[in-house]
TrEMBL record, chain A:
The lineage of its organism: unclassified sequences, metagenomes, ecological metagenomes. Belongs to the acyl-CoA dehydrogenase family. Residues 11-114 form the Acyl-CoA dehydrogenase/oxidase N-terminal domain. GO terms for molecular function: flavin adenine dinucleotide binding; oxidoreductase activity, acting on the CH-CH group of donors. GO terms for cellular component: plasma membrane. InterPro entries: Acyl-CoA_Oxase/DH_mid-dom (IPR006091), Acyl-CoA_Oxase/DH_mid-dom_sf (IPR046373), AcylCo_DH-like_C (IPR036250), AcylCo_DH/oxidase_C (IPR009075), AcylCoA_DH/ox_N (IPR013786), AcylCoA_DH/ox_N_sf (IPR037069), AcylCoA_DH/oxidase_NM_dom_sf (IPR009100), Mycobact_Acyl-CoA_DH (IPR052161). Residues 224-372 form the Acyl-CoA dehydrogenase/oxidase C-terminal domain. Residues 119-203 form the Acyl-CoA oxidase/dehydrogenase middle domain. It comes from freshwater metagenome. This is Unannotated protein. Keywords: FAD, Flavoprotein, Oxidoreductase. Its cofactor is FAD.
TrEMBL record, chain B:
Transmembrane segments: none annotated. It comes from freshwater metagenome. Pfam families: Acyl-CoA_dh_1 (PF00441). This is Unannotated protein. Its cofactor is FAD. Keywords: FAD, Flavoprotein, Oxidoreductase. Belongs to the acyl-CoA dehydrogenase family.
């Protein structure tokens, strides 16, 4: 096996690193943690201006999937906000794959220039892991669709230019078959965004759709083909667009704290730092494997499940270890005097719980691995 | 980047998968207890011309994983490492057996609880400041132990002594031993998981296979990703050693390519997953898993035994920490103060 990156990929990585270093600053971090909006438009635009986003767009960019992985892994390791950009880039790939010429012309340049965001309207108040139970409906009225319903966890809806919305268009069909994906401008009348504030500072949203009228030009893919479009999105994500190395900034911050505080000399501290370094390294190798499988023409769905499960569970374990290690100072938040690791340890202890929930819970991933990898019975008790 | 085995390695994998399946069936593993060495298997392995071949460490990892799958009662890692250091034709032919002591000799010149110590004609390891080989007659017996492994105390001084090098040379050999042991533990862990999956599909309770219960499924589903991670890490470490060592430890960027750090990481990570995989698989066998008649207990005991001969894993984590954060290593601090 050869784990080394090609010179062109290393050069890409260096460009990404230098742009992140220039645009992800203590000031932008501070703004992120006071506003609750985890997105850095200046960073996105700078990456775009250098052509780095266009190169990475899944299924479209010359650098996909290896550079796609490198881009988001570098952002994650640096602690730069990446989910907003990742959603937009992924949906740009989907639009390129299944969209109309008009949709492509509107969306792709807007995303690759680094300006436009797109949020995901999948989950609902009563449909999360069991997404096919969703009840948001789109009904025909002449040449228009009339959409009514509510979506949860539409993160970045308050900044996004579009939402991709999964809605039921034919209730007479089996649950997965009667769904259609829509690509809707967020300024369409009848769309409402309410903030949902989270334990980890980041703001997400509930979005409401009240007699939202759109034309066929807003259908993404085929009518009643929404589940397939979602499959395209998942197949483009491949587990390489961030979310598998959150332990890297945590370890960096904690090691720096241990050095500053002198705790680095304690064997108990050194052991835990080493263990987390191993988990971070393994999570990176598993992610690299997904990128390599995708680059070899495969679809690393199961491997992505394994990676996400391992990475998020390890991160949670690490954030608990480190907060306990820091003791009372591990309770103090960002910018508070005396806070361990300037408050990053406390932040990660608040952030880590969500990572085993969003993007597929640990339980859904374990089901997936048990059924499709281990071959255990699908009917569970 | 190429994360698949090479075509040649796939041939090796298939050949040795079949070899160990045929020659190291559970009956052979049991027959070798409690000593933990089977002379017939050893002789058969010699005919496969592993030793003294131009096989890279990466190639040996492929073979070692297959030996681990069958918990083969032969000192694979020890003999491979010692043969590479000594280059003796008697070792290449399998006529002589070599052991490797990953821990230095004590002040009395004794290597304690040496892997393959019960059966090896020559042991290599550290004594005082030197990396040495000592030829002496093997006891062909040792203390009964958890893993039914051929462990024994051996003298580092009484016998025919050769000086092989310094601490640095030992460190290189020890890194190779860690990587090969890690490969064997990966194979052991993967086989234990497969045994558990097979059992929970057959065993019926409450009118269904117990593998239909989510509690059982989920505990098993945690394992394959960690096993795959251990295999990737082991191969990365082997490739780094094959490339001659070197590399960096840039923890801040999660960029660790240092061969010795990778070897250490591969060893402890593989040991950890082997311990978990065998424990969960044994547990889901219910009472039968505890019975000698079932094979999973053979795997459970070796998962621990093959790793613990290096010592408390905490010590290895601390040694790794000294590589990753060298400025704060205790030795460095002591030297500076």
């Amino acid at each position: 096996m050869d784990f080394t990156l090609a010179p062109a990929v290393l050069a890409y990585r260096e460009r990404v690193r230098s742009i992140i270093a220039a645009h992800h600053t203590p000031q932008t971090e501070h703004h992120q943690h006071t506003s609750g909006t985890f997105n850095n438009p200046a960073l996105n635009r700078a990456l775009a201006a250098d052509g780095l986003i266009e190169r990475a767009v899944p299924g479209l960019g010359a650098g996909d999937p290896i550079e796609l992985w490198v881009l988001f892994n570098e952002m994650e390791k640096a602690g730069a906000p990446l989910d907003a950009l990742a959603m937009a880039v992924m949906i740009a790939g989907v639009v390129q794959h299944v969209g109309t010429d008009a949709q492509k012309a509107a969306v792709i340049p807007a995303v690759t220039s680094g300006g436009a965001l797109i949020c995901l309207g999948y989950s609902e108040p009563d449909a999360g892991s069991d997404l096919s139970a969703l009840t948001t409906r789109a009904e025909r009225d002449g040449s228009e669709w009339v959409i009514n319903g509510a979506k949860m966890w539409t993160t970045m809806a308050h900044e996004a230019r579009w939402v991709i919305l999964l809605a039921r268009t034919d209730a007479s069909l089996p649950r997965h078959q009667g769904l259609t994906m829509f690509l809707i401008p967020m300024d369409t009348p009848g769309v409402r965004v309410d903030p949902v504030h989270t334990m980890a500072t980041e703001r997400t949203n509930a979005t409401f759709y009240d007699d939202v009228r759109v034309g066929d030009d807003c259908v993404l893919g085929e009518v009643n083909g929404g589940w397939r479009v979602m499959g395209v999105a998942l197949s483009f994500e491949r587990g390489v667009m961030g979310g598998t190395n959150p332990g890297v900034p945590l370890l960096r911050h904690t090691a720096a704290w241990a050095q500053e505080s002198g705790r680095i000399t304690e064997p108990a501290v050194r052991e835990k730092l080493a263990r987390v370094a191993i988990d971070n390294h393994v999570a990176a190798l598993l992610t690299q494997r997904s990128a390599w499988i995708a680059a070899s023409g495969g679809l690393p769905g199961l491997e992505g499940s394994m990676t996400k499960l391992f990475a998020s569970e390890s991160y949670q374990k690490a954030s608990r270890w480190f907060q306990e290690m820091a003791g009372a100072e591990g309770l103090l938040q960002l910018l508070q005097p005396g806070a361990a690791a300037h408050g990053w340890i406390e932040y990660d202890a608040r952030h880590s719980p969500v990572t085993t929930i969003y993007g597929g819970t640990s339980e859904i991933n374990r089901n997936n691995i048990a059924e499709r990898h281990l071959g255990l019975p699908r009917m569970r008790r | 980047m190429e994360l698949a085995l090479s075509p040649d390695q796939r041939v090796l994998l298939e050949a040795f998968e079949q070899f160990f399946r045929r020659e190291s069936a559970p009956m052979v593993v049991r027959r070798a207890e409690p000593l933990g060495f089977d002379a017939e298997l050893w002789a058969a392995l010699a005919t496969m011309e592993v030793w003294g071949s131009d096989a890279s460490l990466s190639d040996l990892c492929v073979i070692g994983e297959m030996a681990g799958r069958s918990v083969a009662p032969v000192p694979f890692a020890e003999h491979a490492v010692a043969s590479r250091v000594l280059g003796w034709s008697s070792l290449f032919s399998g006529e002589s057996i070599a052991g490797f002591s990953p821990r230095p000799a004590n002040e009395h010149g004794v290597w304690s609880v040496v892997p393959a110590g019960a059966v090896a004609d020559v042991i290599v390891g550290m004594d005082r400041d030197e990396f040495v080989a000592l030829v002496s007659p093997p006891p062909m017996a040792g203390p009964r132990n958890h893993a039914s492994a051929p462990l024994a105390d051996r003298s580092a001084r009484l016998g025919e002594l050769s000086i092989l090098g310094t601490r640095r040379d030992f460190d290189r050999a020890c890194a190779e031993w860690k990587v090969l042991t890690a490969a064997m533990l990966v194979g052991l862990a993967a086989a234990a998981l497969e045994m558990g999956v097979e059992y929970v599909q057959q065993r019926q309770q409450f009118g269904v296979p117990i593998g239909a219960f989510q509690a059982v499924q989920h505990a098993l589903a945690d394992l394959p990703g960690r096993i795959d991670g251990a295999r990737l890490l082991t191969h990365q470490a082997a490739a780094a050693l094959d490339a001659g060592g070197g590399g960096i430890c840039d923890v801040a960027n999660n960029d660790i390519t240092d061969a010795h750090a990778l070897a250490s990481m591969a060893f402890v990570f593989s040991a950890d997953i082997a311990a978990d995989s065998t424990a969960r698989s044994l547990h889901f066998h219910g009472g039968y898993g505890f019975a000698e008649e079932y094979d999973i207990q053979l795997y459970y005991r070796r998962a621990r035994g093959w790793a613990l001969v290096l010592g408390d894993p905490t010590t290895e984590y601390l040694a790794l920490a000294d590589r990753l954060w060298p400025d704060d290593a205790p030795a460095r601090r002591a030297a500076g103060s």
